[in-house]
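Discussion board: Methods & Data

I've been asked by a reviewer to show the raw model output for two of the constructs in my manuscript, not just the figures. I'm not sure how much to include, so I'm pasting the format here to get opinions. Each protein appears as its amino acid sequence followed by a line of discrete structure tokens. Is this the kind of thing reviewers expect to see in a supplement, or should I convert it first? Here is construct A:
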Amino acid sequence: MAEVISIPRQVLHQEVVTRLRQRLVEGQIAPGAKLNERELSAALQVSRTPLREAIKMLAAEGLVELLPNRGAVAAQFSAQDVIDTFELIAGLEAMSGELAAQRITETELAEVRALHYEMLAAYTRRDLSTYYRLNAQIHACVNTAARNPVLTQTYRNVNARLQALRFRSNFDDRKWARAVQDHEELITHLTARDGPAVRALLVRHLEHKRDAVLELMQRGELPTAAKESA
């Protein structure tokens, strides 16, 4: 029997990608777990064709791995992967932040402030899902304000791989509160057009994220991939 598609066909593909991405980012599908097409088709109320297309797109983003004889599994990082990738994203965010401080318009700055206030409301409710979505929008807005399309594309490609880990970095209340404080300072430095201060803040912010993820790995609360020999 054909499955009922509850999503309008014209937006079906993107909706499936969005819903599946959210499951991966928020840990509803654990790192290293196999993506069961039958179960996901039923849960998302779509046929397997758009689901498989979504899996391929998320594999391109780095959230899914396509393994020979195993199918699709949720991406899993080793500790060294975390160190290397956060090192890169910290450099990219630092560069975009410093350029944004010079180039951001008042309209863009107002949008960042508005998103920040919405994010604070989500933080107050302890609504991590909404908080993370708004947080990601803020970082994307800062990157866009840098006015460097090559930097933006590189940032998007690298950051896509880290979404699930950045989400988990807020599981500890103390670390989450520190992240919120970092965003308060970000608004202050952007308003002052202080590029070096924005750069330094974003490097520190990403280092805190990295350390939070590594701590989860060390405590065994986040599955860690072992590096396979070639």
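Construct B, same format:
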Amino acid sequence: MTQPATHDVLAAAQRLHQQDQPYALVSVLRVQAPASAKPGDKAVVTADGIVQGWIGGGCAQPAVLRSVRAALADGRARVIRIAPAAEGQLRELDDVLEFGMACHSGGTLELFVDPMLPRARLVIVGDSPLAVALAGLAPRVGLPATVLAQGADAERFPDAERVLASDDAAQAAQALAPGSFVVVATQGRRDVQGLRAALGIGARQIFFVASERKAQVLKAALVEAGQDPAAVAAIVAPAGQAIGAQTPEEIALSVLTAVVAARRGALPAATPTAVHAAVAVPQTPAIVATAPTDAPTDAPTDAPTAALAAVAALPAAPGKSSCCGG
């Protein structure tokens, strides 16, 4: 069999990269004959199968595909060994996963599976001073930003990669690819619509800048309106790390710290109450929405009116801002 040249494999990888499609570059490290692959052989593999390249015959491919899917899910590279054994047998030997392969040809392959995930992106939902600060800071930490807000003015977000002037959930889902980190920074203006849009785009993680009380009420309203309970429960609220932030720019830094921690798999197990208490700051007119901010006229017709009215009626904590507490 004529095996694909390395440049063909790399060209396929480049094509997937340009399309923001996740894939893994799988390389043969060691071979024990008989085996049809040789050290240095490579393949580009997606969750659906081999796109380009050669890393051995059909007996090896189920184990490779299983490993690629796991690597794309957790973002971690791994070394796997495919050796003669009962088919489906799996052993962990030091830092190598060994898969059993019941092929008559025998032979052993050792492969390096290197996941290549799309560039992390940030979607900022809302048109608030915090949203402006987030859009300015995010690109500087390697997160191209898209702003999603009803009637948004692109001139307010000069550093954003895109500005979408609608928070309609269906339109957002059509316009944005899944897998972005999302920060809902509506700060009392169209909170429900913003959350619905965030849930509709298949986010990797959603952060909601709101108080714990407000977030609980809105989450309950979303579930009651038919949103997936597991997806709603996964929304991180309050958002932000404890750095004593006060200005919109500092609060943006606090929230982006949490986003970067999630991106790098280092999000600490802090309780929402503790994070909120540390991030809440004295009231500043520039970052506090005027009440009532969640009036029923701003709510979708299928959301429970009583729950949304309860949000509007929540008293502000004395001496606290709604910058990270909504």
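Answer (T.O., handling editor elsewhere):
This is acceptable in a supplement if you add a one-line summary per construct. For B, something like: DSSP finds ten helices and twelve strands in the chain.
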